[in-house]
Specification:
Blueprint lengths: L13 H7 L9 E13 L11 E10 L8 E2 L2 E3 L6 H13 L5 E8 L10 E9 L13 E20 L3 E13 L4 E13 L2 E12 L5 H18 L13 H12 L5 H8 L3 E7 L9 E5 L7
Parallel strand pairs: 1-6
Antiparallel strand pairs: 1-2, 1-4, 2-3, 2-7, 5-6, 7-8, 8-9, 9-10, 11-12
Amino acid sequence: MDNEQLRDKQGLTEVEFLQKYDASIYERPSVTVDMLIFTVVDEEKENYRKLPEKSLKLLMVKRGVHPYIGQWALPGGFVTEDESIDEAALRELKTETNIDDVYMEQLYTWGDVNRDPRTRVISCSYMALVDCRSLEVKAGDDADDARWFNVRYSVLEEKKTILEKDFVFEKVVKITLSNDKDILEAIIKVIEKYSGKTAMVEREVIVSNGIAFDHAEMIQYAVERLRNKIEYTDIAFNLMPELFTLSELQQVYEVTLGKELLSAAFRRKIADMVMETNQFTKDAGHRPAKLFKFNPNWRYA
């Protein structure tokens, strides 16, 4: 029998059911997208003979409207009825920051009931990785400013409790965002509960200074996701220019992971991911170093 002719318990076909359906039966929450846009940049160097230090940065926008007016938030906005969530993310990325054509992936869906004081709002967060040297960032219509912030991530406390069949992992994390004008801080408690095959994660913002909504939780999650993925994928190359030295690449890994790496082990790790070129650096004060580029076929090598 044709599916269109199948009838439900009320004797209705699908067409008849849809004609009678009342969408107002359920209250519909609003949906937003929030963008976590990371880059790695060179800091000003005091000694021209040394490689400049690098820092991991996150793009934030200063809210020019209520709620949280004057505080800093992730770029984002509401999803309209005639677009998908991915399309909304791309639109917001372009309109709020003047950024497009970059690596982007969906991270997580945030649905706590009271996460937005305006109304019931569910948000899908996205992570984008960019080489900011080729970008011109600008604030959107409802933002007063858009700026890059240095990201510092530190674990203040960790505790693991093992029960008969379950275990609970707790940690307290501090996020510090800073630039030459502003310092934003947040302390987040993360509780992971494992019971058999079931896993639950709870996050609580203990302190938040200057960061709007629950965006401190999103930042904490995104930094951990970035650190995990950089270990086993080629995601780091989205932070690099087309040509780079191996030392520069190692610096990007180190600043993202928040730890120093042994050069020999690092170069073995990324050997298949890069290709030599016949070009060298031309910086004054440094010995010429060979330039490399990303090898898109490294997975099949």
